[in-house]
Write a structure and sequence with these properties.
Chain A is α/β, with parallel strands linked by helices and 261 residues long. Helices cover 31% and strands 28% of the residues of chain A. Chain A is built from eight helices and 15 strands. Chain A starts with a strand and ends with a helix. Chain B has three domains: 2-56, Alpha-Beta Plaits (2-Layer Sandwich), CATH 3.30.70; 66-255, HUPs (Rossmann fold, 3-Layer(aba) Sandwich); 268-395, TPP-binding domain (Rossmann fold, 3-Layer(aba) Sandwich). Chain B is 26% helix and 27% strand. The radius of gyration of chain B is 24 Å and the shape is flat. Classes of the chains: A alpha/beta (261), B alpha/beta (396).
Chain lengths: 261, 396
């Protein structure tokens, strides 16, 4: 069973702090990490390989430094990596990102399953998975929390929904996204780390994957960002004072005034 | 298109460096320098007081005759035949946009055994309801739902399509957008029509709600967006409203490659926290499962639901479906009580747009207080019992 895992390198938002006066992000020294949801995708791919054999290939689109994320994937046990990197890819929205990923995946060819994290923690859109599936012409199932059964032709899995879960059957090849409940990701092995250290990550350009430049990056993106601004500050804030009983009393009165109780 | 620094004008003031949401500006030889991380968002252009950064745009040619696209559509989500609350919010917002554009509002209603409910969508503001009622559409299915909406959109060419940013909407709407070769903006909290261009302005939070981005789809149609729950105002009901109900045959069953074998509602987790008006949430500061039960009691008194931070879920005090924050659910209730929650950025991302936030924490410097409407500095073990008692008295 050959599996492709989609990964994204993101800034570690747990390290991002906010300057509350200017409402801007303080990014100094913020490390880049593998999107946390993609770790579950990598882990699930490795487990499927352990059960069914085959090969796991990690794919990312990003600037040259995104190679670090792929090296980390290798240290975890991924067999092969593909970096899609080209100046023409910069500024891509979800459509243009999916276009490049789909072209890259087609170039790799011969796969049974594509796995990605539910969403990336920097953009939080959850759109690249389903859009890529559509461009590949394969079925898509979101929010997988458990794979019950998989064989060469189909897969049965549990999909987390707002009110509970569905058991869904899909034909293969398919693209799925996974949630954190699916597994507990492993740590890199020493052998993996050694392999990653010596690895030279080759990158593929738009030309290499047969992507039209005017469909890539900012040029190929149907959506355009016209403005970025800090969120409106929250309304009045009040730190209450006095004995706890009085503070609770004050809160209760205010909630009553606002008909919340 | 490119963003570039005009070297002669740049004073080296460094204001743009922290303003870049992507960390793509460095100082080199005393001047701002834009690195490869630049996504061309233009945030730096706005903050530069000296007009030393410019964004040049090549006017892209529209890919289609935009004037052929008319009308505002909403995907009317239902659950077991009942119209979801997010649908009423979409109709409320869709009606406003349709009125601004002087056009019609249509709803696309997909499911099985739902025919009788279509008139409720008209009562809530729709002019036209397309109903696809078929046994194959009873359960949510990406291929089937996307086929219905895509086919209708290709035929009738709406200018705008809105859907809820729910599990269902976020799963299949991107497929529709990819298929229609158009843009899609996730999780919008503000929508408006640009008075000059007539484009839909789609505003959404990014980086866990720490920056807002306004996005347009200038040259493609339809303009598509998913909309966050509980942000838009629900449409008022008026049973005297008139509209057309149009039956749509489902013909794409041959193209459906996935099927739902069963759906399970998780009984212990019946309250869907994204629907709750009041949420009482706890973090690691609750210290034990036993203490956590106080939150359940308080929630019961207030008629609300229980929420939790990732830390509390990891401790096993409450199931994952209650988790609020970046790796859980994003909620926007009328009242959010945060007990023993320090306020990590990932948690704030999921709850900071709540109307009223009450924070209880013994550390007066806890970041949770920066978003709290009312802050109580104290031990949860002391504050919560008093609160439960007080609220009980008030409710009689």
């Amino acid at each position: 069973m050959n599996i492709i895992v989609l990964v994204k390198q993101v800034p570690d938002t747990s390290e991002v702090k906010i300057n509350r006066e200017t409402n801007t992000l303080i990014r100094d020294g913020v490390p880049s990490i593998i999107n946390p949801y993609d770790r579950y995708a990598i882990e699930e791919a490795l487990r499927l390989r352990e059960q069914h054999g085959g090969k796991v290939t990690a794919v990312t689109m990003g600037p040259p430094q995104a190679a670090d994320a792929l090296k980390e994937a290798v240290s975890l046990g991924v067999d092969d990596v593909v970096l899609l990197s080209d100046r023409a890819f910069a500024g891509a929205d979800t459509w243009a990102t999916s276009y490049v990923l789909a072209k890259g995946i087609k170039k790799i060819g011969d796969f049974d399953l594509v796995i990605a994290g539910k969403q990336a923690i920097d953009g939080d859109t959850a759109q690249v998975g389903p859009e890529t599936a559509d461009m590949l012409g394969i079925p898509f199932v979101a929010y997988i929390r458990k794979i019950e059964h998989v064989d060469g032709k189909k897969m049965v899995a549990e999909r987390l929904m707002d009110e509970g879960y569905d058991v869904v059957e899909t034909s293969l090849p398919a693209l799925i996204t996974v949630v954190k409940e699916i597994n507990q990701p492993r740590l890199p092995s020493l052998k993996g780390k050694m392999k990653a250290k010596g690895l030279k990550v080759a990158s593929l350009t738009a030309k290499d994957i047969g992507a039209e430049e005017n469909q890539c990056g900012l040029k190929g993106s149907p959506t355009k960002v016209v403005r970025i601004f800090p969120p409106a500050p929250r309304g009045q804030r009040e730190m209450l004072k006095g004995p706890i009983e009085e503070q609770v009393g004050a809160v209760a009165r205010k909630l009553k005034e606002q008909s919340l109780i | 298109m490119s963003v570039r620094v005009i070297s002669d004008t740049c004073t080296g003031c460094e204001t743009c460096v922290p303003a870049c949401p992507f960390g793509a500006i460095e100082m080199r030889d005393g001047k701002a320098f834009i690195t490869e991380n630049c996504t061309l968002c233009g945030a730096c252009v706005e903050v530069c007081e000296f007009k030393a950064i410019e964004r040049t745009e090549e006017a892209a040619a529209p890919v289609a005759d935009l004037s052929a696209y008319k009308g505002v559509w909403v995907f009317a989500e239902q659950h077991k035949g009942g119209i979801s609350s997010v649908t009423l919010e979409l109709l409320g917002e869709g009606r406003k946009l349709a009125d601004k554009k002087k056009t019609k509002l249509s709803a696309v209603f997909i499911g099985h055994g739902i025919n009788g409910k279509a008139k409720e969508l008209i009562a809530h503001g729709a002019d036209i309801v397309y109903v696809a009622d078929d046994p194959a559409l009873r359960d949510f299915n990406d291929d089937a739902y996307a086929a219905v909406l895509t086919t209708l959109a290709k035929l009738h060419k709406p200018e705008i399509i809105l859907a809820g940013a729910t599990a269902i909407g976020r799963s299949f709407i991107p497929k529709v957008a990819a298929n229609l070769c158009t843009g899609l903006t996730a999780d919008c909290t503000v929508l408006d029509i640009d008075p000059e261009t007539g484009h839909l302005h789609q505003t959404r939070p990014a980086f866990g709600g720490n920056i807002m981005a306004t996005i347009v789809t200038p040259n493609h149609r339809p303009q598509m967006a998913t909309v966050r729950h509980k942000v838009m105002k629900k449409a008022d009901r008026d049973d005297a409203r008139k509209g057309d109900i149009i039956d749509v045959k489902f013909t794409a069953s041959g193209d459906v490659r996935t099927k739902v074998l069963k759906t399970v509602e998780e009984v212990s987790e019946t309250v869907n926290i994204s629907e709750a008006d009041i949420i009482v949430a706890g973090g690691r500061g609750m210290a034990s499962q036993k203490n956590f039960q106080m939150l359940e009691e308080l929630a019961k008194v207030l008629g609300g639901a229980v929420g939790a931070t990732r830390g509390a879920v990891d401790e096993g005090w409450v199931p994952y479906s209650h988790q609020v924050g970046q790796t859980g659910k994003t909620v926007c209730p009328k009242l959010y009580i945060a007990a023993g929650i320090s306020g990590a950025i990932q948690h704030l991302a999921g709850m900071q747009s709540s109307d009223v936030i009450i924070a209880i924490n013994k550390d007066p410097d806890a970041p949770i207080f920066s978003v709290a409407t009312y802050g109580i500095v104290g031990d949860v073990n002391e504050v919560l019992p008093i609160m439960i008692k007080k609220f009980k008295e008030m409710r009689g």
